[in-house]
Write a structure and sequence with these properties.
Largest sheet of chain B: 9 strands, mixed
Shape of chain B: globular
CATH class of chain A: Alpha Beta
Number of strands of chain B: 21
Number of helices of chain A: 8
Number of helices of chain B: 3
Oligomer: heterodimer
Number of strands of chain A: 9
Helix content of chain A: 25-40%
Order of helices and strands of chain B: HEEEEEEEEEEEEEEEEEEEEEHH
Radius of gyration of chain B: 20 Å
Order of helices and strands of chain A: EEEHEEHEHHHHEHEHE
Low-confidence stretches of chain A: none
Mean pLDDT of chain B: 94
Radius of gyration of chain A: 17 Å
CATH topology of chain A: Rossmann fold
CATH superfamily of chain A: P-loop containing nucleotide triphosphate hydrolases
Largest sheet of chain A: 5 strands, parallel
Strand order of the largest sheet of chain A: 6-7-8-3-9
Strand order of the largest sheet of chain B: 3-4-7-10-12-14-16-18-20
Distance between the termini of chain B: 29 Å
């Protein structure tokens, strides 16, 4: 169980304070696939980044399986079972697809996650995760990494962004399988896409920093 | 194994990746003396008679042979300039593994200046690997390699030049002249830390029609170390040249990268790229979301970058 209690987040722009999240409280139960949607700038990515520890809320608590993890850093949260697929995948110099998949899953030998997202192992495994790859390829590698990590809580931030229609259909199947096979996992997907909302157990609308 | 102590064996392992007598021809130089030398049917290794160093003669049509010529300095204060010349016959395919390891525990500088000249025949395929490594508690581990190459028609040379760690000062000079249809790839990797300084000056002259050069320099500068790179390509005819200088800068280090292109023909296609920057916080964060600590993430990125 993942619980967010009264989460606030704001940023300062010169003298003005912008409230991005205004007292978010919600719970996610094992076995759920929840879609978070809402207009641009409503705080969806911030919401996900706060769960992962990439951003610190100005107020509020995050409770994972009864433990307050609000003060835990990114690594500690990752090792407690939270993973996050970035909306804009990170390009590296010197880090290969194989490296990323093995960091996510140290005993990874068959790298089946690449095939699941429609990328041929022979072609991609030893390529650097850099800007010579297209946005769609980087996105699929990002998703494969999260599949390899196989955490209790998987958060996907706009997984459809930059992905072609064929791959998008494939992605829907990946999420369906992920949910049906893993009754103990919590899958949170930030998305605007109806086909993704259609497979969700719940859809939460985030607007002006409130659910 | 030749008579080496544990430190010398470790240096040998680091720079030449060998822990015993290698297959093929070799010359092992320790503290200014050859402690082992072997020629083979196709490769003749001879000491020079007028100055310090060796001549390596590789017969034409030699295929898939290897020559190891590592140098070890474990005596503090030892200073040497060594001249090694390679004469590679037409149609040969060889790998040459050089490299120098210095251990310094004294108060004096230990210096190895290695001058390597390659005369590469027609249609050859040559791989040259040179690793430099320093260790020991004292400063003054200095390596100044000079590598000059003359590539005859349709020959191909790949250079892997690597400074692993621990070298306090280096001044590297690499020069190549290419004839018709010849191709060279130079991959330089360099790590400096502490107060170390590194200078690298690479110059390639594309003399022959359809000759090509690809130079990739990757470096990491940590602490208060300083690096200065000059990559220069001259295109005299229809040719293609590309140079890329990529550096990760950390702490209070300083890096200067100066790529330059000199096109002397309308048909010379020359490109250079240079980028210096710190490790992006987003890269560290991404690896932390996969379970690495920030220190592990930084090490992963640096090791991968120099791999």
């Amino acid at each position: 169980m993942l619980e967010l209690k009264n989460i606030h987040f704001s940023i300062k722009d010169s003298d003005r304070k912008h409230h991005i999240l205004n007292g978010i409280s919600t719970k996610f139960k094992p076995g759920e696939l929840v879609v978070i949607t809402g207009p641009n700038g409503s705080g969806k990515s911030t919401f996900a980044e706060i769960i992962m520890g990439l951003k610190k809320p100005s107020q509020g608590q995050i409770i994972l399986n009864g433990e307050d993890i609000s003060s835990k850093n990114i690594t500690e949260r990752a090792n407690l079972g939270i993973s996050y697929a970035f909306q804009q995948p990170i390009a590296f110099k010197g880090v290969t697809v194989r490296d990323l998949l093995q960091i996510a899953k140290p005993k990874n030998r068959d790298f089946e996650e690449l095939e699941i997202v429609g990328l041929a192992k022979t072609e991609y495994l030893d390529r650097e995760v850099n800007k010579t790859l297209s946005g769609g390829e980087l996105k699929r590698i990002e998703i494969a990494t999260i599949l390899a990590k196989d955490s209790q809580i998987m958060i996907f931030d706009e997984p459809e962004a930059g992905i072609d229609i064929w791959s998008f259909d494939n992605l829907i199947q990946v999420f369906k399988k992920l949910r049906s096979k893993n009754k103990d996992k919590i899958i949170i997907i930030i998305s605007h896409q109806k086909p993704i909302m259609d497979i969700a157990d719940r859809v939460l609308l985030l607007k002006k920093g409130k659910l | 194994m030749m008579d080496l102590d544990e430190i010398e064996k470790d240096l040998l392992k680091q720079v030449a990746d060998i822990s015993g007598i290698p297959a093929g021809a070799y010359n092992f130089r320790v503290n200014g003396k050859s402690i082992g030398r072997k020629s083979t049917v196709n490769i003749d290794v001879k000491p020079k008679t007028t100055k310090s160093g060796i001549d390596v003669f590789i017969k034409a049509n030699t295929k898939k042979d290897v020559v190891h010529i590592p140098v070890i300095l474990s005596k503090s204060g030892h200073k040497e300039t060594v001249y090694n010349d390679f004469y590679i016959g037409d149609n040969s395919e060889v790998t040459i593994v050089a490299g120098c390891g210095i251990y310094n525990c004294g108060v004096q500088n230990s210096i190895h200046d290695g001058v390597h000249v390659f005369h590469v025949g027609k249609n050859c395929k040559v791989k040259y690997i040179e690793k430099h490594y320093g260790t020991g508690p004292s400063q003054g581990k200095i390596l100044n390699p000079t590598t000059k190459l003359h590539l005859d028609e349709s020959s191909y040379v790949e250079l892997e030049l690597e400074q692993i760690a621990g070298v306090d000062s280096t001044n590297r000079l690499t020069q190549a002249t290419l004839q018709k249809d010849a191709k060279i790839e130079i991959i330089e990797k360099l790590l400096t830390h502490g107060r170390q300084t590194a200078k690298s000056n690479i110059k390639v002259i594309l003399n022959g029609k359809n000759s090509t050069a690809n130079i990739v320099s990757r470096s990491v500068a940590r602490d208060i170390s300083k690096q200065d790179f000059k990559l220069h390509i001259v295109g005299k005819t229809t040719c293609r040249g590309h140079s890329e200088c990529d550096a990760i800068i950390m702490d209070k280090a300083k890096v200067i990268a100066t790529p330059s292109l000199d096109a002397k023909s309308l048909n010379a296609e020359l490109i250079h790229e240079a980028a210096i920057g710190k490790i992006a916080g987003a890269e560290i964060n991404k690896l932390m979301t996969l379970g690495l600590t920030s220190t592990e993430a930084e090490a992963q990125i640096i090791n991968g970058f120099l791999k």
